[in-house]
Amino acid sequence: RGEGKRRERGKVRAGRVLIMSSAEYGLVSEDNADFRQGASYPRMGGGGGPGGEGTPLMYAGGAEQPTTFCQIEHVAIQSGGSHQPSLVHISGQDVDVPKYEFPGWVPPSELQFETLEAIDQKSLHHPSRGCLSEIYATSIAGNDVTSSSLYIVGVTSTLAGQLSPLCLILVGCVLYLIKAVAGEAGTAIPLNGGAYNLLLNTTTKPVAALAACLLILSYVATAVVSATECLNYAANLIPGLDTYWGTIILLAFFAVLMIVGISESAQLATGIFLVHISTMCFLIAIGTTYMIANPIIITENLREPLKYDWPLSLMFGFCVGMLGVTGFETSANYVEETQKGVYPKVLFNTWLISMLLNPALSIVCMGVLDMNSMESHHRDVLAKVAYDSGGKYFGLWVSADASIVLAGSVLTAYVGVTGLVRRLTLDRCLPQFLLAENRFRRTNHLIPLTFFALCTLMFVLLNGDVKSLANVYSLAFLLVMTLVIAGTIILKYKRQFIRRAVRASWPTCFAALAFVLIALAGNIVLAPTHLLWFFIYFGIVAGLMLVMFERIRILKWFLYFLSQSPQHMQDRFSGVTLMAMDKIRSQKVVFFASNENLEILSKAIAYIQQNELTKWVKIVYVYDDLNDPIIRALADNLRVIDRCFPKMVMDLVLVQGSFTPSVVAQVSTRLGVPRNFMFMVCPGERFPYDLGDFGGIRIITH
User: CA 573 to CA 422: how far, in whole Å?
Assistant: First the structure.
């Protein structure tokens, strides 16, 4: 383009200085001529005067009239006692050029400063951050993991027969590998969201959204399977209970609870967990005593012929047995709430519980029930074991305990999916109407209602068949684990300098990935017809996210077909469509540059352009001295980047001081950009903070 020479010949008229809060080097390109004038452009309070962010960057007349680069903002921390960031705004200079680009470097002598309001350190994070001790954090995940034992023992026995204990031991060994991998991912990126946040910081946003789709499907299967099994155990307490309609009513009950505003309590979860573990230990003790007194049962079971050859029986039992550790990933969804250093301990505790409990229960079942009884009672096998070994009342007690734990798993699914969908909606991966709040309880009622509809539809389509439901559940869980392991491998390669308390070896990562893929393939072979239902549900959620990612492209196609329609149709819909596109792309994003490196800047802007629906990027550089030569080099390089990305609007913000969580929060508040729309380069080995300290800032380059 030939604007450079025209700019050099352009007549520059002096502009006046307006003091505001940070200092931004403003940029506009030709494609964005009306971007900051539209109704969708977010105005800052008090910015309506000349030079403020409320001032349009272009005249209504277009390129024929000169314009003013109305913002050059600068953030600085004064050397006084408060050490709080200060912000300055310079209403720039009139430039007689037909194009509007990034103005480049501005002399430091033109900058003036004003102190920003201090940020309360307590407001940097949610009040619940770091409030869960080891016992509380273990109990929440432990309830999910141990609830799987209530139905997996029977399902595994129907396929592997007397090899089922060995299969579950093998599952525990694989879980040990996954524990190391999940520990590295959770300590390197200690943010809620599990696989979604891991992949969001190591790959692209669409890939992370793919993991989120699988997480949602996993939550749906969790709720349906747990509700179904809860009613099966409850039927032992209430003879004649209609488990089909009871499951639907239970799902509706928890949807109403979520709308009312009741969520999980750590104390309640701990109480349920301790009672459940005590009950299971007592069941193992009673069952072992019964098995010793009646050795003929286990002897006959060991003589039973296997359904398949022993290698296939072992493999199929292992594949199905992986369902018995579902819930292990739950702790990654509340890692921010756990106390420092507790997360690896939670993973170890849940692994140890699963490793000891599942094989022991399988052996007890083989010592109390014959194979035919286990297959016919696979839906409530532990209640049957308790009834035969400990009598009627012990059977009722185990049924009641199982019902409570499984009901808690349904609630966990509702709580988990509500938090995940809220995060996806805030990240603009799902429609914003899901954030609608009811005026009575101020809760997001549409999320639990939508989740209830999905769960009910899945239950009805599969006709309440727990084996089919469990297979869909296994596929979703194993795919999530595959993405977690793959994300950790990428993390080790591309984000190797991030601080972490746990490091899994490369052989551990690849061995875990291999075993999980084997389990995934085995579940598909066992029930290929259920793959159809999996893809139907996955396609519904993924299709909705795809539409959200491709909104601009869809609207552009709509405009194209609209241009072929009669004039009255164009007059009616073209303006509305253009306004909708401007509103979608009006979200500002921030990138914290560590230096003037042109390649990194180019990669960052390319990532933002490909992954975010925005055309407005604020480049932030933190410096010590205003005469830092990087500032001028950065401004010059951004001028080059501007010409490479003519559809992006860029501003340069300079922050004097140190890159700390409090400064990031103040920049977020002043610029009106949520921290989940802020990006940074991968920090070095000496970086003194954890990524979680910054409240959701994302790593996009290394």
Answer: 31
Residues 6+ apart with CB under 8 A from 697: 592, 664, 675, 676, 678, 679, 680, 691
The pLDDT tens digits of the residues spanning 150-181 come to 878 888 888 888 889 999 999 999 999 999 99
Enumerate the H helices of 433-495 as residue ranges. Answer: 446-461, 466-494
Instruction: Report the DSSP pairing between strands 616-623 and 649-656.
Output: parallel
437 DSSP assignment: -
For the record, the structure tokens of 349 come out as 């505790």
Number of alpha carbons in the 13 Å side-chain half-sphere of residue 490: 21
Q: How confident is the model at residue 415 (pLDDT cuts 50, 70, 90)?
A: confident
- Contact assessment for residue 196 and residue 208, using Cβ atoms and an 8 Å cutoff: yes
Closest CA to 513 of 151, 135, 181, 44: 181
N residues, the chain? 702
Tell me how far apart the alpha carbons of residues 529 and 554 are, in angstroms, rounded to a whole number.
34
Sequential DSSP letters for 376-427 = HTTTSHHHHHHHHHH-HHHHHHHHHHHHHHHHHHHHHHHHHHHHHHHHHHHT
pTM of this structure: 0.79
Residue 512 has pLDDT above 90, yes or no: yes
For residue 540, name the pLDDT band (cuts at 50, 70, 90).
confident
Residue among 264, 240, 246, 145 at smallest CA distance from 456: 246
Q: Which residues does residue 619 pair with via DSSP β-bridges, in sequence order?
A: 591, 652
* Lookup: tokens for 575: 């303006």
